[in-house]
Amino acid sequence: MLKCTYTAALWMVNDLGSGYINYMNQIQILLQNPDYIVVNKDAGISVHNNEDPQNLLLLLEKQLKVGKLFPVHRLDKETSGIQVLALNSEAARTVAEEFQKKTVKKIYAGILRGQLKTAQGSWNKPLTDKAEGRKNPEGSAKDRVPCDTRFKVIKGNSYFSFCEFDLITGRQHQIRKHAAVVNHPIVGDPRYGDPKYNQKMADIYKTERMFLHCSRIELLGQIIECPPPKIFEEIL
């Protein structure tokens, strides 16, 4: 099992807490072999967006001096944490097959607004598999598909719930939508959260990031862990 920690030797960007970072140095590499590279993506950087000159693929291709990289899954721009990329198309197909067979396990850490009534459970309301909005996170009824998000409260208070999420299904924005549906949106979520509340949190904690982080992936016999930035603990 590979774990990453936030030390000066490993983490080489400007600021751990701010979330939206100007990349002056390097992306943190968690694991690299001839077929795959695993990195710790920060919040505020898209995995692949041709309109974004600082997208993860472009930065890594320049940093590693490689040709084409193949993301085998895709974190939201606002989400930080473990991102796996293949270094060749054959490796990408192998991982795609694992996702189809549902042998890949992804665990997220997130901070929700308010205090959840139960310490653990499952959210299984159907959702669409596309981006929606704050007014209707579930999306159109005709487009909804089965979804399952398992949650466990790690710690919390009357203001926040620090949770671990296990994605049983992998729909777009699934954790973010389910959290919004139960009226406990992810703190800092610009799409499904309350803008006034998010601005208040940004003013208090000096960060505009969304508090969702991919902290563990089990893939092809490897377990990779990367704890969320220290500000997750600080706001509690």
Name the descriptors.
single chain, 236 residues, alpha+beta, 11 strands, eleven-stranded mixed sheet
Q: What does this molecule look like?
A:
The chain has helices at 56-64, 89-100, 174-181, 195-205, 231-234; strands at residues 2-3, 28-32, 36-41, 70-71, 80-86, 105-113, 120-123, 149-156, 160-167, 212-219, 222-225. By secondary structure, it is α+β, with helices and mostly antiparallel strands. The relative contact order is 0.19. Strands 1, 2, 3, 4, 5, 6, 7, 8, 9, 10 and 11 form an eleven-stranded mixed β-sheet that branches. The chain has five helices and eleven strands. The protein is globular.
Shape: globular
The value of Rg in angstroms is 17 Å
* Biggest sheet layout: 11 strands, mixed
Percent of residues in helices:
10-25%
Nearest-integer average pLDDT:
88
Unreliable segments of 5+ consecutive residues: 5-24
Structural class: alpha+beta
Topology diagram in text:
Blueprint: E1 2-3, E2 28-32, E3 36-41, H1 56-64, E4 70-71, E5 80-86, H2 89-100, E6 105-113, E7 120-123, E8 149-156, E9 160-167, H3 174-181, H4 195-205, E10 212-219, E11 222-225, H5 231-234
Parallel strand pairs: 1-11, 5-10
Antiparallel strand pairs: 2-3, 3-5, 4-5, 6-9, 6-10, 7-8, 8-9, 10-11
How is this structure best summarized?
The chain has about 240 residues and is an alpha+beta fold. It contains 5 helices and 11 strands, in the order βββαββαββββααββα. β8 (about 150-155) and β9 form a beta hairpin.
